[in-house]
Design brief:
Elements lengths: L11 H58 L6 H15 L2 H28 L1 H8 L6 H26 L3 H55 L11 H36 L2 H14 L3 H17 L5 H28 L1 H9 L6 H8 L13 H7 L3 H26 L1 H27 L5 H13 L1 H10 L4 H22 L5 H11 L6 H17 L1
Helix pairs in contact: 1-3, 1-5, 1-6, 1-9, 1-19, 2-3, 2-5, 2-7, 2-9, 3-5, 3-7, 4-5, 5-6, 7-14, 8-12, 9-10, 9-13, 10-16, 11-12, 11-18, 14-15, 16-18, 17-18, 18-20, 19-20
Length: 531
């Protein structure tokens, strides 16, 4: 495999794309983190106020509308991101506004159809699927939120495509705060389960209203009376791009449902509880990974497909820095999995740490394009490849899950999921290299993996000999790990002076990060200067 040494390949175009990606990624990450924290507060308070039985009814009533919400996607969210970014890069500003408008119309129609279906068939869903006919009233209330959820998520995609991710973060935070205030207030006023569900619906209404207003102000200046593209042509373009992604969403959405059925058949309730505790915490990694994949889609969409050298260079750098960010977090979760589960869930969840450490192993694929290849293919309109990747995952999970779960319990289910992810990543890796001539910076990747593991030594020693309580162990061990990682990165020459300078220039526009990255980069520069 070819391993070209990176020597300042950042042209002005790539620097601009990198700046936009870093800025957008920061707002997506911070917005997701803040809204997730607020949502967690809402969940805890509502659960405590309702009690286990009523909270169970509340959770079940939301299942059907949220499952059917998947049907409204149509692949249009990623289509809007892709074409908004591509057309902006080409200077076709008026066409951007039309694509966003048509995409919003299509998804709104799908949302209305799902709302009507859910509302009309609420008694059927409650009786047949949930085995609780008394929940039909709550399902009808929850179904109202689907239309507004569609509007807010579509507007969020438009903000990402327009490089205005701060508005997406703002909308997420508005929804989270609205949910906390309204849900808790209505429950305290005596509306019980209905009040909690109304709080969820109201939060979508507030977020959709705010998002639609911000989006209208953003694109109204971009519209004109000229129309060089027909409505039919734009609809056809969106649907041709989005259909494979829509099928992928359905496969991805069905997979956890299928896994839950397999767990119910072959494992105990205690094992399922431990598995859910592990996956609940593992999903916190998506606070980091989802912004990465989301922001790389418009980044690749802006690049000129004819200029393969720029494309390869940007992919290599994106994959390298994604690995540098995700691998340390993954290693830290594995090291402290036992302490994390004990702190969050208590000592009763004895198997949770093993399931957590096993589940996050899939993120070790990050150096081989696990988080970047799908965005790369989608950015260049090759959504059929993305669908094939998801189909491979789905089929392997479908076949191996019952076999391995019956033999090895929850670990068997996790192993089936890991095998599926490895298989689809191998396929994506092969297609990227053979069809697009994508190169991976193998030398840097080996060093990043090595440094990620070596940095764990002080943390493991601390954990082994420390008598600190679990929370303090995590804090001290985590800080030791990050310090070691920050030191070894320049020592192993994973980065050089030129790269650090480029990173500083790219991050300079993100003012809140300046006090954080400045001393880190200064420390690494001093190490490089001594070398």
């Amino acid at each position: 495999m070819k391993t070209a040494k990176w020597k300042s390949p950042m042209t002005d175009e790539l620097v601009k794309v990198a700046e936009d990606s870093a800025r957008g990624g920061f707002f997506l990450l911070s917005g997701n983190a803040f809204s997730t924290a607020i949502m967690a507060i809402s969940t805890i308070f509502v659960a405590r106020l309702l009690g286990p039985e009523l909270y169970g009814q509340y959770s079940l009533a939301l299942i059907i509308p949220q499952l059917l919400f998947l049907l409204t996607d149509l692949g249009l969210n990623q289509g809007i991101i892709k074409f908004a970014a591509t057309l902006r890069a080409k200077g076709e500003i008026n066409h951007v506004a039309k694509i966003i408008k048509y995409g919003l119309m299509l998804r709104a129609l799908a949302g209305i159809a799902i709302f009507i279906t859910t509302y009309a068939l609420a008694d059927f869903f409650a009786s047949v699927f949930l085995k609780r006919p008394e929940l039909a009233f709550y399902i009808r209330i929850a179904s109202i939120g689907v239309v507004f959820q569609v509007i807010s998520t579509t507007a969020g995609s438009a903000f990402i495509g327009l490089d205005k991710t701060e508005y997406n973060a703002l909308a997420l935070n508005i929804q989270a705060v609205a949910k906390v205030i309204i849900s808790i207030s209505l429950v305290l006023l005596g509306f019980s389960v209905a009040g909690a569900i109304l709080g969820v619906v109201a939060s979508y209404i507030v977020a959709a209203s705010a998002s639609a207003f911000m989006l209208y102000l953003m694109i109204r200046e971009r519209q004109s009376t000229e129309n060089s593209h027909s409505i039919r042509e734009d609809f056809r373009t969106l649907m041709r791009y989005g259909t494979p992604l829509y099928l992928s969403v359905l496969l991805i959405g069905f997979t956890p449902v299928y896994q839950n059925v397999i767990l119910a058949l072959f494992t105990t309730d205690a094992d399922i509880g431990n598995y859910k505790a592990a996956t609940n915490f593992a999903t916190l990694l998506t606070v980091v990974t989802l912004p990465i994949t989301a922001i790389l889609l418009p980044a690749f969409s802006k690049l000129d497909t004819a200029n393969t050298q720029k494309t390869r260079t940007f992919f290599r750098l994106a994959n390298k820095y994604t690995a540098m960010l995700v691998l340390p977090i993954t290693v830290l979760i594995i090291i402290f999995s036992n302490q994390i589960v004990r702190i969050v869930y208590g000592s009763m969840y004895r198997s949770g740490s093993l399931f957590l450490a096993s589940y996050v192993l899939m993120y070790f694929l990050v150096g081989f394009g696990y988080l970047t290849l799908a965005s790369f293919f989608n950015g260049f309109g090759k959504t059929k490849i993305t669908f094939t990747m998801n189909l491979i995952t789905f089929l392997i999970v479908l076949v191996l899950s019952p076999v391995l779960t019956q033999s090895y319990g929850v670990l068997g289910l996790i192993i089936a999921f890991l095998i599926a992810n490895v298989a689809d990543n191998i396929y994506a890796f092969y297609v990227a290299r053979s069809s697009f001539k994508i190169e991976f910076d193998v030398r840097s990747m080996i060093k990043i993996y090595l440094v990620s593991f070596l940095s764990s030594i002080p943390a493991v020693i601390t954990l082994r000999f420390s008598s600190f309580p679990p929370l303090l162990n995590v804090i001290v061990g985590g800080l030791l790990y990050l310090f070691t990682y920050t030191t070894l990165t320049p020592l192993m020459k994973i980065v050089d002076q030129q790269e650090l300078k480029a990173v500083a220039n790219i991050l300079a526009k993100i003012k809140p990060l300046v006090p954080i990255y400045t001393p880190v980069l200064r420390y690494q520069r001093k190490i490089l200067s001594y070398l």
